[in-house]
Amino acid sequence: MRVSEAAQTHRLEQQFAFLNEADRLKSVLRATTLVDGSRVENSGEHSWHLALYALVLADQARPGVQIDRVIRMLLLHDLVEIDVGDVPIHSANGAAHGSAETQAAESKAADRIFGLLPNDLRDDLRALWEEFEAAETPDAVFAKSLDRVQPVMANLMSGGGTWTTYNVTAEQLDSRVGVKVARGAPALWAWVRGKTQAYFG
Amino acid sequence: MRVSEAAQTHRLEQQFAFLNEADRLKSVLRATTLVDGSRVENSGEHSWHLALYALVLADQARPGVQIDRVIRMLLLHDLVEIDVGDVPIHSANGAAHGSAETQAAESKAADRIFGLLPNDLRDDLRALWEEFEAAETPDAVFAKSLDRVQPVMANLMSGGGTWTTYNVTAEQLDSRVGVKVARGAPALWAWVRGKTQAYFG
Question: Which residue numbers delimit the HD domain (chains A, B) (predicted)?
Fold first, then answer.
């Protein structure tokens, strides 16, 4: 075997170590149900649905947002849950999601999971995930808006969902969800918030 | 309400009619299992995994392939299964997948599902799906390669999977799967085929 073939083989082994590990995201369960309420959603299919949201709702993004970068972020955004699990936005009275403890655990998970990749891919995909988490660039802000609005739609369609589970108030919906959705997609939030009036007034 | 607001509202209603309908892809079951063999995969999470394949295996594509277009195709490629169901590649001794009957049913499903969208999006996304199905452009050929190779990896990881279910021979693996993977990603197929020798020699 030539050196280049050995390097190619090693690279493929690393790429598939990551892709096979990523498969486990299909077994991470979320609090939100499917639209038909039949079962809770897993984080793999959630990530697909969000990428489709980005493709279909691109016209809701602010000028300059690059939808293909948004899609890439959304494909990756939950991988750390393989180690950490999903932390529902309304759980622990809203205190668990985004806590320093959760962030530290997710950073460690990112080290391990992206670390399975060849170095160039590790650095590129880790940087995309960090950008999503920081929620500062226009692409990341829009991606976060979609991540927040999709469970709202699932709750609307399934008859209340996690709003009932966690006794969510209108103020909590606005502060935990609305602010984030409106930041990246203001017209979208105005429309969706109108739909929620049957639950929250 | 101004006309422009009414139009915006109508557009959002159409976009979410599609996105909520798309949710049903999470309930379409495939023959292939998860990597850990714990259950069969659904077509929603499969679509996510394939999009991640495209992101990670971009260096296996031929020069000129636009990975972001490949990702978009893969996000959409199975939506017609909401109406038609998944047709396993090795089922009915390989005769069902891609049959004229299946193709006609999928085309009708595409009319209905993409038809939920505003006209501009309907045309754009339908065209991407048609391009994937035709498997003629470099982007579609690479997308098809990934769609064929991912179940091979799941079978390898889970101890045989659908090869055992359908008594697949080496010749069938090569003709139904290998030719398609090698067309878009020859080095990838050479490597994966080597891994299958324990099953097929």
Answer: 22-189
**In this structure, are residues A85 and A68 in contact, taking their beta carbons and an 8 Å threshold?**
no
Tokens 């091979």 label which residue?
B152
Alpha helices (H) along B77-167? 81-84, 100-114, 119-134, 138-158, 162-165
A155 to chain B: which residues are within 8 Å by CB?
none
Question: Each residue of B47-76: pLDDT tens digit?
Answer: 999 999 999 999 999 999 999 999 999 999
**How much is the pLDDT for B3?**
63
Say if residue A193's pLDDT is above 90.
yes
> From CA B49, how far away is CA B22, in angstroms rounded?
16
Best mutation target among A12, A25, A52 (most B Cβ atoms within 10 Å) is: A52
List pLDDT tens digits, range B140-181. Answer: 999 999 999 999 999 999 999 999 888 999 999 999 999 999
H or E stretch covering A119? helix A119-134
What range defines the domain where residue A85 resides? 5-200
State the pLDDT confidence band at A114, using cuts at 50, 70 and 90.
very high
Helix or strand or coil: residue B167? coil
Write down the residue that tokens 């966690």 correspond to: A166
Partner-chain contact A36 B23, CB within 8 Å? yes
pTM above 0.90, yes or no: yes
Query: What is the three-class DSSP state of A11?
Result: helix
Contacts of B22 in chain A (CB under 8 A): 49, 52
Contact A15, B56 (CB under 8 A): yes
A153: which chain B residues are within 8 Å (Cβ-Cβ)? 16, 19-20
Please state, in angstroms and as integers, the Cα–Cα distance from residue A186 to each residue in A56, A77, B1, following that order: 16, 22, 18
The residue among B9, B56, B78, B81 with the most chain A CBs within 10 A of its CB, best to mutate, is B56
Average pLDDT for chain B: 95
pLDDT for residue B29 = 98
Average pLDDT score over chain A = 95
Closest Cβ–Cβ partner in A19, A36, A38 for B53: A19
Q: What is the CATH number of the domain that holds B135?
A: 1.10.3210.10
Q: Residue B126, Cβ neighbours under 10 Å: how many?
A: 17
